[in-house]
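Note to self: keep these together.
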Amino acid sequence: MIGRLNHVAIVVPDLEAAAALYRDTLGATVSTPLALPEHGVTTVFVELPNTKVELLEPLGDDSAVSGFLKKNPAGGMHHVCYEVNDIEQAKLDLEKAGARVLGDGNPKIGAHGKQVLFLHPKDFCGTLVELEQV
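Structure:
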């Protein structure tokens, strides 16, 4: 069902500083910040030869990642994202297997302009999993 690793997401308290760290210290290519109000985050992607790292900063007080930063003030790994060929079929198969899809259960448009779903961390070894349609 799952394909390649699309990205690993890290929540950060200061997106500009985190982007500079990856760009200036590690020599990575970092995208322009993108505000995603529907997800409550501002994000940049660090491009790597084999995958990406997504850096997330809360956008507004209602952000889903604000609570994460309260528990982890320095930031930390938030989720992993795997690619799937058919997100609707993946959703059906996962629900049939007992996995919980977060939110209203319907795919939303993610940072890459593609459909995404999030799966409950308690169903996946304590890790929040994002699926992205390719």
